Automatic annotation (TrEMBL), chains A, B:
A Gene Ontology molecular function term of the record: 5-amino-6-(5-phosphoribosylamino)uracil reductase activity
Domain of life according to the entry: Bacteria
Chain ranges of the Bacterial bifunctional deaminase-reductase C-terminal domain: 8-183
Cross-referenced InterPro entries: DHFR-like_dom_sf, RibDG_C, Riboflavin_Biosynth_HTPR
Gene3D superfamilies according to UniProt: Dihydrofolate Reductase, subunit A
Organism, scientific name: Propionicimonas paludicola
Protein name, per record: RibD domain-containing protein
GO biological process assignments: riboflavin biosynthetic process
């Protein structure tokens, strides 16, 4: 059974998944790269990086994934819909290598890039988007890519099977929170926590099948 | 040099240190005992409890402490100032065994109970309260007891030397947050994280002395 999975989703101690304001120069606002330093220090990101618990989690990102769904805020800075040449942050060869479905109220034509990544644009509810992505993924899993607003929607709609969060020990103070409106979301999941020598704590929420 | 320390301060994943509404029947509101289950399962609380990392942290609560400062919301439910017979939640022999300074805008006479605990009531700023508590503690340390609002005030005033937090993997959704207004508070501290088999993660913030 194809599952929906979230990987390497990093939040601050106070629950922010991005700072503010977001722009073309600062995709995570005042957070800069601080939420993802842990990941950029692993072999997953850098061939000379670390090879311990942080890498073990990070490299699961692409393992058995057949499609991704991402929110409009992940695909580009505010206003990207007005720029017909915008093709995402990731250049000619994005690190997805599957179909990627971008949720936006202003869909455009699909964009095929190198390495197997094709961006499709959908104005759709979470469950409809998931049906489309599952079809594209075949027997493989669907990654829910974030950002925080769309992940909240998928969690609230009970559409997530596996959630890997990384709590970074900084207090961002402002930005976009993950947890708002998700009281009690832990019920129905097995939750594990493991801290890393790098200082971050990995949390996994795995759906309990009844 | 006497230090100011915080121990066993438990928060949810979304940063709430208490639920709502708080009352005489439900000191932590809808959170119930969920933020402190980890502690009640240790030898610190229960002689037949666990004796591992959770206990190692929990029992530091009283180690070398000569006085506590607590907020009005920790001492009693809303309106306790109108009840002349209210002597705290803890019965005849409270677990403090030192002078305890309760911050309130409506001070009353001191209350001496068994086991060395005396409650004093102060209408004072954090730094003034700390000066008074330090005097009472002699060479020993001062524990900052919480709740979250008064702890925020002490953190914002840069008066904390050691902060032990326990992140419990539940999403409370509502209550009183610890982190509000504390952007960047981690700078100036050494931060460590260690997860426990019980599922909680212990965080320590230790002031870096320059």
């Amino acid at each position: 059974m194809s599952r929906t999975r979230v990987h390497n989703f990093s939040i601050s101690l106070d629950g922010f998944a991005t700072g503010e304001p977001q722009s073309a120069e600062a995709p995570f606002g005042h957070a800069g790269q601080r939420l993802h330093t842990w990941m950029m220090a692993t072999r997953f990101w850098d061939p000379s990086g670390s090879d311990g618990v942080d890498h073990a989690f990070a490299q699961r990102h692409s393992d058995g994934i057949g499609a991704e769904i991402m929110g409009a805020h992940k695909f580009g800075p505010p206003g990207w819909q007005d720029d017909p040449d915008w093709t995402g942050w990731w250049g000619e060869n994005p690190p997805f290598h599957t179909p990627v479905f971008v949720l936006t109220h202003r869909p455009r034509s699909s964009i095929e890039l190198d390495g197997g990544t094709t961006f499709h644009f959908l104005d759709a509810s979470p469950d409809h988007a998931l049906a489309v992505a599952r079809e594209a993924a075949g027997d493989l899993d669907v990654r829910i890519g974030g950002g925080p607003s769309m992940l909240r929607d998928f969690l609230a709609a009970d559409l997530i099977d596996h959630l890997h969060l990384v709590v970074v020990p900084i207090v961002l103070g402002r930005g976009v929170r993950l947890w708002d409106g998700l009281e009690g979301i832990e019920s129905g999941f097995e939750v594990e926590s493991v801290s890393s020598p790098s200082g971050v704590t990995h949390l996994t929420f795995t759906r309990v099948r009844s």
